[in-house]
C-alpha cells in the first residue's frame, strides 16, 4: 500500500516509489482513469435543461455583478470579511471535498474534518458526498460521456452548463458503481449530507451576511450583496475554471495524451488547483502540484495542519517518478519550478 512517509509536523514525499511506477497501489483507485470504458454507439441523448437552475444561477450572477458595484461603498472590515469567507469557502472545496474526501491524499483528525465540512458548506457546491462522487467519476471517466463536466462538450458546458441540465445517463450509471464506502463510513460527511439544506442556509447565506451587519454596523444591503452573494459567485467560478479553463488552456508537461493543462492563473484563483495536467497524472498527490506551495495556498494550509498535528500521512510523488513521467509522456514544456 502506498503511503507518504511522514515526520512529525510535516508532510514529505515517499522516496521509495519506483521511478516508472505512476499508478502505484493506493487506498483507493476510483480516481484512476478507466481505459476500458467505451462510450455507447449511436446518437447522444437530448439535453434536458433544468430551468430552475438556469433561473437561480442567472439571478446569482446578476446579484454578483451588482455586488461589484457596491464594493466602493462597503466598509474596509466588510471587504476583509468577504476575503476571509472566500478563503474559507475555497478551502472547504480544495483541502476538503477535493484533496481529503475525493482523493484521500492525506488524513485529517476529527476537528479538522469538522472545520473543512463547515467551510465546504459555506461554499455550497453540493454536499461532500455528492461532490466527491462526481469528482471521482470525473477522473475515472475523464472527458467521456460518464464525466459529469465533460470538457469535450465545450467551455460553457464544462464551466457551468453541466449544472443547468440533466446528467448524461452514463454519469448516473457509472457513478452508482463507484466505491463510496469510505464516505459512508465518515460520520462528518454523512452528518453534513443529512442536514445539508439547513446548514447551507446558515453557513452560506446567514453567517456571511449577519456578521458584518451585527458586529460593525455594515449596511444589511451591502452585507447581502458583497460578502454573501458576490463571494459565493466568485468561489463557484474559481472552482468551475478548474473544470473548463484548466482543461483547455495551458501546457501539458506530464502527459500530452490527456487534455487537462497547467494553468497558473486558474491556480491563483482556485488557491492551488490549476496545475491540472499534474493532478490528472498523479491524482493522489496531496499538493496537486510538482512545486509544493508555489501558487498553492491549499498546500500551505495542509502543511500548517500537519504542523499542528491535525493532518498526517500526506501522499507525495517522488522527483524520480515525476521526471520519468514527463520524459516519457510530457509535451516537452516541463520546467524545474
Automatic annotation (TrEMBL):
GO MF term (any one): stearoyl-CoA 9-desaturase activity
Cofactor or coenzyme needed: Fe(2+)
Reactions the enzyme catalyzes: octadecanoyl-CoA + 2 Fe(II)-[cytochrome b5] + O2 + 2 H(+) = (9Z)-octadecenoyl-CoA + 2 Fe(III)-[cytochrome b5] + 2 H2O
Membrane topology per record: Multi-pass membrane protein
Swiss-Prot/TrEMBL keywords: Endoplasmic reticulum, Fatty acid biosynthesis, Fatty acid metabolism, Iron, Lipid biosynthesis, Lipid metabolism, Membrane, Metal-binding, Oxidoreductase, Transmembrane, Transmembrane helix
Signal peptide extent: none
Transmembrane intervals: 54-73, 79-101, 199-216, 222-242
GO cellular component, one term: endoplasmic reticulum membrane
UniProt-listed Enzyme Commission number(s): 1.14.19.1
Residue span, Fatty acid desaturase domain: 79-284
GO BP annotation list: monounsaturated fatty acid biosynthetic process; response to fatty acid; unsaturated fatty acid biosynthetic process
Location(s) in or outside the cell: Endoplasmic reticulum membrane
Main location: endoplasmic reticulum
UniProt family annotation: Belongs to the fatty acid desaturase type 1 family.
Domain notes: The histidine box domains are involved in binding the catalytic metal ions.
Name the UniProt record assigns to this protein: stearoyl-CoA 9-desaturase
Protein species of origin: Pyxicephalus adspersus (African bullfrog)
Amino acid at each position: 500500500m502506498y503511503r507518504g512517509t511522514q515526520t512529525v509536523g510535516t508532510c514529505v514525499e515517499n522516496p521509495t516509489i519506483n521511478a516508472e511506477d505512476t499508478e502505484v497501489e493506493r487506498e483507493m483507485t476510483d480516481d484512476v482513469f478507466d481505459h476500458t470504458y467505451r462510450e455507447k454507439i449511436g446518437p447522444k441523448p437530448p439535453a434536458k435543461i433544468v430551468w430552475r437552475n438556469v433561473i437561480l444561477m442567472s439571478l446569482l450572477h446578476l446579484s454578483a455583478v451588482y455586488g461589484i458595484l457596491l464594493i466602493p461603498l462597503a466598509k474596509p472590515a466588510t471587504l476583509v470579511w468577504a476575503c476571509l469567507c472566500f478563503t474559507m469557502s475555497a478551502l472547504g472545496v480544495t483541502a476538503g471535498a477535493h484533496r481529503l474526501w475525493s482523493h484521500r491524499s492525506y488524513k485529517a483528525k476529527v476537528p479538522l474534518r469538522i472545520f473543512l465540512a463547515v467551510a465546504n458548506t459555506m461554499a455550497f457546491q453540493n454536499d461532500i458526498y455528492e461532490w466527491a462522487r462526481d469528482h471521482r467519476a470525473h477522473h475515472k471517466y475523464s472527458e467521456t460521456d460518464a464525466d459529469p463536466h465533460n470538457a469535450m462538450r465545450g467551455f460553457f458546458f464544462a464551466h457551468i452548463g453541466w449544472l443547468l441540465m440533466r446528467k448524461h445517463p452514463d454519469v448516473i450509471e457509472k457513478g452508482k458503481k463507484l466505491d463510496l464506502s469510505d464516505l459512508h463510513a465518515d460520520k462528518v460527511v454523512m452528518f453534513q449530507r443529512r442536514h445539508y439544506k439547513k446548514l447551507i442556509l446558515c453557513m452560506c447565506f446567514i453567517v456571511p451576511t449577519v456578521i458584518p451587519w451585527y458586529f460593525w454596523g455594515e449596511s444589511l444591503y451591502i452585507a447581502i450583496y458583497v460578502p454573501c452573494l458576490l463571494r459565493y459567485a466568485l468561489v463557484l467560478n474559481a472552482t468551475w475554471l478548474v473544470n473548463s479553463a484548466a482543461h483547455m488552456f495551458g501546457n501539458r508537461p506530464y502527459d500530452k495524451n490527456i487534455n487537462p493543462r497547467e494553468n497558473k492563473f486558474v491556480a491563483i484563483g482556485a488557491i492551488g488547483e490549476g496545475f491540472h495536467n499534474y493532478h490528472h497524472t498523479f491524482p493522489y498527490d496531496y499538493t496537486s502540484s510538482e512545486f509544493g506551495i508555489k501558487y498553492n495556498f491549499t498546500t500551505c494550509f495542509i502543511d500548517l495542519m500537519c504542523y499542528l498535528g491535525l493532518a498526517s500521512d500526506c501522499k507525495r510523488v517522488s522527483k524520480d517518478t515525476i521526471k520519468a513521467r514527463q520524459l516519457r509522456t510530457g509535451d516537452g514544456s516541463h520546467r524545474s519550478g
